[in-house]
User: Which sequence fits this backbone?
């Protein structure tokens, strides 16, 4: 059985990885409360995994700005709602982000129910806010609040 990193390792990885992906700041149709709005897929070999998913689902990949190896996944619409990132550590697994009206309220509710905040509310300039937590069974999940005024 493979050893998984503890919460500190996960938090350190996430804290060092700047949020450079495009999350939906606005959409033609409002995102429903509680809807999964972004998925992040880690890869040991970005090129081969991009070929794998591109060959199956006809996805295209766009390098996002910044120093980190992060690619937005174009699924055929105008919104990039998924991304692929170079795996940061052996415990780096796929993660989802849920859209919320208020990140502060959602994080507070999650911690009241037993979640542990790993990355506190963090701005993605001009797009919104995100935070990352562990659920009571140690699964990572994220929160996303769209806000074009985030800085």
Assistant:
């Amino acid at each position: 059985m493979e050893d998984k990193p503890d919460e500190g390792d996960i938090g350190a990885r996430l804290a060092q990885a700047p949020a450079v992906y495009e999350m939906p700041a606005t959409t033609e149709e409002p995102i429903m409360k509680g809807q999964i709005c972004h998925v992040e897929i880690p890869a040991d070999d970005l090129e081969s995994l991009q070929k794998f998913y591109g060959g199956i689902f006809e996805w295209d990949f766009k390098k996002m700005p910044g120093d980190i190896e992060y690619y937005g996944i174009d699924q055929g619409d105008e919104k990039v709602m998924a991304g692929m990132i170079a795996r940061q550590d052996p415990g780096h697994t796929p993660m989802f982000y849920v859209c919320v009206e208020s990140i502060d309220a959602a994080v507070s509710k999650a911690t009241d129910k037993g979640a542990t905040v790993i990355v506190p509310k963090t701005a993605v300039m001009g797009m919104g806010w995100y935070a990352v937590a562990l659920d009571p069974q140690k699964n990572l999940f994220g929160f996303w609040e769209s806000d074009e005024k985030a800085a």
Remarks:
- The chain is about 20% helix and 35% strand.
